[in-house]
């Protein structure tokens, strides 16, 4: 398939104040749009002006949530190059997520190369202040105008771009996390280890309740016993206990985070032991009592590494490292963002320059 | 709020061959469309020409599946009246589903009355052949053009209508059901007892695998122990064991079917004992071995009552009533559809004439 280009007549004004970018509200001039139907397969791919979709009110995605997405970023280096971080892993995960809910396969290499073209085209939209980046949202939806419950034949796969501000406007500040014991995000056999839209809808209520109580995010427990740690709202989670990093193993209900995988590799490379295993809140609570719980942090595309200052579990307040960011957390954050922004040599082969 | 009307210039041609209606592919001339935003609340409601929606590619519903829906029907009686079946219960459930995923509340009475107006307007679209009806699909979606994970402020609530054929074109025929032991539909604490889009996306893969093996639908087991019966793809399920009807109790992961509730009330009225309780596949298998499993059927809006002829559980084939429809199943089907089509007096107050 050939990637076409449709020019827009008038370009938008780019934001001038990078301190006011926020997250995900401003979109660039162009988007990548690919289309598929039942007869022709993938029949159209183009970079076209960012604009509204025309969807039937019966479109499958609006009824049965046949939708998956990814989140990734493009970074501008101090010398003006454009870097992306493991984008092939995101595109691969998009394909795996799609497969779980019976969406048509797509050519991952074609999508990745088309994405590079889009980024090149929109490189002037990448902000340059510390911590800012261009957020990239590949989205894949089933759109047949048919209200029967079945996999779609017609699809749109598109990518939109949004310049985003620094996640921590005033430096990394530890978050307070509410451990959710009533609502469940996912269970083995479900869709929890994929980026399907429904997982996020299901998470909203617990998130709102945590916000009302003044906490930043929710920590989900397993759906079977409500005992074992799974993941935080939009991040995987790591505990540093007696010098070792522990993170829940991927057992079918946790998102296989690309930042998570990078942290594991990076920590091991730094000589920090890492174990992926089942870990209960009881164990974490006991480690906090005997002083062996040293640090807690989340990992994800948005914040990269996010220190956790406090966990609230039932009536227990678990204060981590006196509510301050730990040394290992800081080191992992600095190294990973250093690689992403091209300040530190990338010996892992994670970054790619888009040029 | 006032319900407005926007006329379309040219009406569509109505289908002439009612044997070819199928399900959910043909839509009528008009739809009900209500809009809400963060400042004004619900600010617009109108009956307008059926047509495409304009949605931002960033619209929340396309990423985080903030979407709920309902399925209901309008029936034409032999003497030309239009009946609906417990529509207030569907609208109430739409509101409950919406609440579970943090969607804004709406005026249920206003929606119900507006729906009646739409049905009146489109009554000539209701087919009249035996078993046909007008399928009604209320849909509620969050549409903010913002890719942060949070509840929407902007919403569309709309209702589309589709004339549908008889579910069983050649008489009620028992279905073969595959008992799913690997994939899980829902777990307590999740969204399984609500009509959120994500539940349906999560169900597609198991459904496809069952179809490939030649079975009609999937029977879901509980997400914790994979032992207890929950519901069928698009139906609740009933077992007749030693003269008693048994159906899984509503314990947080099963959809509270309106047909289910009606069957329970109807059966009790007929003098058939009904128990809502936990029931395992082991118990059903044993009942089939000792001959006490008399009948199995599903209940839902689409098929009303659907006889089950065979359950396939691991390597066991459980043949129900020699693969034929049972007497109680037939009686419940005849009575319930009789009430819905106005052939049998409705002593329960379930039907409403739209006039």
TrEMBL record, chains A, B:
Modified residues (N6-(pyridoxal phosphate)lysine): 195
Sample GO molecular function, one term: branched-chain-amino-acid transaminase activity
Catalytic reaction(s) noted: L-leucine + 2-oxoglutarate = 4-methyl-2-oxopentanoate + L-glutamate; L-valine + 2-oxoglutarate = 3-methyl-2-oxobutanoate + L-glutamate; L-isoleucine + 2-oxoglutarate = (S)-3-methyl-2-oxopentanoate + L-glutamate
UniProt pathway annotation: Amino-acid biosynthesis; L-isoleucine biosynthesis; L-isoleucine from 2-oxobutanoate: step 4/4; Amino-acid biosynthesis; L-valine biosynthesis; L-valine from pyruvate: step 4/4; Amino-acid biosynthesis; L-leucine biosynthesis; L-leucine from 3-methyl-2-oxobutanoate: step 4/4
E.C. code: 2.6.1.42
Annotated keywords: Amino-acid biosynthesis, Aminotransferase, Branched-chain amino acid biosynthesis, Pyridoxal phosphate, Transferase
Top-rank taxon: Bacteria
Enzyme class, first EC level, given as a word: transferase
InterPro entries cross-referenced by the UniProt entry: Aminotrans_IV, Aminotrans_IV_CS, Aminotransferase-like, B_amino_transII, BCAT-like_C, BCAT-like_N, BCAT_family
Keyword Transferase: yes
Protein family membership: Belongs to the class-IV pyridoxal-phosphate-dependent aminotransferase family.
Protein name (Swiss-Prot/TrEMBL): Branched-chain-amino-acid aminotransferase
Organism lineage string: Bacteria, Bacillati, Bacillota, Clostridia, Christensenellales
């Amino acid at each position: 398939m050939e990637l076409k280009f449709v020019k827009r007549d008038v370009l938008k004004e780019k934001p001038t104040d990078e301190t006011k970018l926020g997250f995900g509200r401003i979109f660039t001039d162009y988007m990548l749009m690919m289309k598929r139907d039942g007869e022709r397969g993938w029949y159209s791919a183009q970079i076209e002006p960012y604009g509204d979709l025309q969807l039937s009110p019966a479109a499958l995605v609006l009824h049965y949530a046949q939708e998956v997405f990814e989140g990734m970023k493009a970074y501008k280096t101090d010398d003006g190059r454009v870097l992306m971080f493991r984008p092939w892993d995101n595109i691969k995960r998009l394909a795996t997520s799609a497969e779980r809910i019976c969406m048509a396969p797509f050519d991952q290499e074609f999508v990745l190369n088309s994405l590079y073209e889009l980024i090149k085209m929109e490189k002037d939209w990448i902000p340059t202040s510390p911590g800012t980046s261009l957020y990239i949202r590949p989205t894949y939806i089933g759109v047949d105008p048919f209200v029967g419950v079945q996999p779609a034949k017609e699809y749109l796969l598109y990518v939109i771009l949004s310049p985003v501000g620094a996640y921590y406007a005033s430096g990394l500040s530890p978050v307070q996390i509410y451990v959710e014991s009533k609502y469940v995000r996912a269970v083995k056999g479900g869709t929890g280890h994929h980026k399907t839209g429904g997982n996020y809808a299901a998470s909203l209520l617990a998130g709102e309740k945590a916000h009302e109580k003044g906490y930043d995010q929710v920590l989900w427990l397993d759906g079977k016993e409500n005992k074992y740690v799974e993941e935080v709202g939009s991040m995987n989670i790591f505990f540093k206990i007696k010098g070792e990093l522990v993170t829940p193993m991927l057992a079918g209900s946790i998102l296989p985070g690309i930042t998570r995988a990078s942290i594991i590799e990076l920590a091991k490379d730094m000589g920090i032991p890492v174990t992926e295993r089942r870990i209960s809140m009881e164990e974490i609570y006991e480690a906090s009592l005997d002083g062996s719980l040293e640090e807690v942090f989340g990992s994800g595309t948005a914040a990269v590494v996010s220190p956790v200052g406090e966990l609230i579990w039932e009536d227990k307040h678990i204060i981590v490292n006196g509510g301050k960011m730990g040394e290992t957390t800081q080191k992992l954050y600095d190294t990973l963002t250093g690689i992403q922004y091209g300040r530190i040599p990338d010996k892992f082969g994670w970054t790619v320059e888009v040029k």
